[in-house]
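Module 6 notes. Inverse folding takes a fixed backbone as the condition and produces residue identities as the prediction. Think of it as a translation problem where the source language is geometry and the target language is the twenty amino acids. Below is one complete input and output pair. Work through it position by position during the lab.
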């Protein structure tokens, strides 16, 4: 049995804490809101994020950062991308031992263009970090807590650490592979949210399966182009953290990014969408970062650029789709477009 702290009591953090508790690990879930932590402790529910789900009796929660840091032998970071720096800084205030850190969020920081593992490396002192492992793949929290079969990948530059996390999580409904391509795994997980926004926009306008299939396929092509330019293994994007995560996020009503795109396609403004969602939509922030990365690495990412125009430059949903369809004629396999 391991002692694990999960930072972030949203739907995904709670689902992963549930897997760990059901695997027999001494699991503590940290929330920045005491009323949420108390609900998890006393009622074994998290109704805001996972309604009508009974959480394991052996799962406990706290809003006390010092208690959370003292508890864990492994630290799971399940806070949104924009909260990673602040949470790491708070952890560093009381942490004085070496641990494995795992992050499960999917995003890229705008302006700095840092992946999450790079942000963590900046904010956590090297003396407390044994390794950083990425856990990613096609995985809706709502299905994991219902024990629906789910398969993800644990990625680290240190294979032994990836295997430790594989063993920590793996059970009869939650299967974990290992993958050494940290950059590719992080990019696939982050950039698929951008394409999922586009799939939602297409559905919101009222287009059919033809359009969405094209978005997913061409979206994967531009994710791969950027990933390879940044040093990733191209095969990563054909796997769980690439194509697998892209499919599930573009086709499911569980996906926040698809739902946000769907509302944009129906004509709502970005501000109206975010207010109605009431949850973090990682794809919005990542679209800005992906737009910057495309310029930084001189990679053509037309779907990403179209969504940037929709989100930040006032273009309409139908305009961006028409612009995509009327782009200059190209061969499908030309790697330069």
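Target side of the pair, the amino acids:
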């Amino acid at each position: 049995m391991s002692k694990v702290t999960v930072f972030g009591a949203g739907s995904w953090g709670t689902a992963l804490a549930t897997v760990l508790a059901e695997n027999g690990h001494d699991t503590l879930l940290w929330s920045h809101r005491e009323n949420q932590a108390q609900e998890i402790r006393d009622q074994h529910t998290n109704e805001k994020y996972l309604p009508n789900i009974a959480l394991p009796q052996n799962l406990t929660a706290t809003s006390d950062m010092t208690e959370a840091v003292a508890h864990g032998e492994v630290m799971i970071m399940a806070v949104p991308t924009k909260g990673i720096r602040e949470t790491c800084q708070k952890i560093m205030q009381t942490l004085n031992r070496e641990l494995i850190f795992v992050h499960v969020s999917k995003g890229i920081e705008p302006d700095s263009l840092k992946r999450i593992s790079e942000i963590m490396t900046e904010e956590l002192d090297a003396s407390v970090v044994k390794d950083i492992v990425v856990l990613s793949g096609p995985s809706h929290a709502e299905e994991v807590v219902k024990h629906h079969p789910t398969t993800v990948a644990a990625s680290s530059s240190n294979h032994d650490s990836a295997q430790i996390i594989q063993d920590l999580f793996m059970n009869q409904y939650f299967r974990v592979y290992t993958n050494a391509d940290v950059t590719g795994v992080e990019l696939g997980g982050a950039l698929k949210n951008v394409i999922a926004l586009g799939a939602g926009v297409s559905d919101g306008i009222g287009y059919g399966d033809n359009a969405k299939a094209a978005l997913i396929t061409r979206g994967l092509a531009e994710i791969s182009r950027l990933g390879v330019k940044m040093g990733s293994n191209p095969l990563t994007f054909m796997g769980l953290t690439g194509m697998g995560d892209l499919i599930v996020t573009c086709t499911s009503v569980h996906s926040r990014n698809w739902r946000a795109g769907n509302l944009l396609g129906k004509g709502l403004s970005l501000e109206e969408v975010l207010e109605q969602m009431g949850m973090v939509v990682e794809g919005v922030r990542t679209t800005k970062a992906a737009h910057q990365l495309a310029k930084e690495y001189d990679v053509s990412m037309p779907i990403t650029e179209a969504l940037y125009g929709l989100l930040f430059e006032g273009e309409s949903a139908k305009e961006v789709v028409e612009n995509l369809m009327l782009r200059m004629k190209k061969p499908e396999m030309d790697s330069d477009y």
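Reference fact for the lab report: The longest strand covers residues 129-136.
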